[in-house]
UniProtKB/TrEMBL annotation:
<dbReference type="InterPro" id="IPR005807">
    <property type="entry name" value="SecE_bac"/>
</dbReference>
<keyword id="KW-0813">Transport</keyword>
<dbReference type="GO" id="GO:0005886">
    <property type="term" value="C:plasma membrane"/>
</dbReference>
<keyword id="KW-0653">Protein transport</keyword>
<dbReference type="GO" id="GO:0006605">
    <property type="term" value="P:protein targeting"/>
</dbReference>
<protein>
    <recommendedName>
        <fullName>Protein translocase subunit SecE</fullName>
    </recommendedName>
</protein>
<dbReference type="GO" id="GO:0009306">
    <property type="term" value="P:protein secretion"/>
</dbReference>
<dbReference type="InterPro" id="IPR001901">
    <property type="entry name" value="Translocase_SecE/Sec61-g"/>
</dbReference>
<feature type="transmembrane region" description="Helical">
    <location>
        <begin position="33"/>
        <end position="61"/>
    </location>
</feature>
<dbReference type="GO" id="GO:0043952">
    <property type="term" value="P:protein transport by the Sec complex"/>
</dbReference>
<keyword id="KW-1003">Cell membrane</keyword>
<comment type="subunit">
    <text>Component of the Sec protein translocase complex. Heterotrimer consisting of SecY, SecE and SecG subunits. The heterotrimers can form oligomers, although 1 heterotrimer is thought to be able to translocate proteins. Interacts with the ribosome. Interacts with SecDF, and other proteins may be involved. Interacts with SecA.</text>
</comment>
<comment type="similarity">
    <text>Belongs to the SecE/SEC61-gamma family.</text>
</comment>
<keyword id="KW-0472">Membrane</keyword>
<keyword id="KW-1133">Transmembrane helix</keyword>
<comment type="function">
    <text>Essential subunit of the Sec protein translocation channel SecYEG. Clamps together the 2 halves of SecY. May contact the channel plug during translocation.</text>
</comment>
<dbReference type="GO" id="GO:0008320">
    <property type="term" value="F:protein transmembrane transporter activity"/>
</dbReference>
Length: 65
């Protein structure tokens, strides 16, 4: 197992952090809005599917009872 030199480790971390491309404020805002829209669409879809399935189950149980 290789021994880690803390100074060399942090030097490598600093070098890697310089390679990172950070998003702009506009990109972050647009991405956040897109996530909120997709979550809302998914929630509406799942709510609707749940209501339809609940209705069908109640209908089937009502016929059997």
């Amino acid at each position: 197992m290789a021994k880690l030199n803390p100074v060399a480790y942090f030097r490598q971390v600093k070098a890697e952090m310089k390679k990172v491309t950070w998003p702009t404020r506009k990109e972050t805002t647009v991405s956040t809005i897109a996530v909120f829209i997709m979550v809302t669409i998914a929630a509406i879809f799942l709510f609707t599917a749940d209501q339809i399935i609940a209705f069908l189950v109640q209908f089937i149980i009502g016929l059997g009872g």
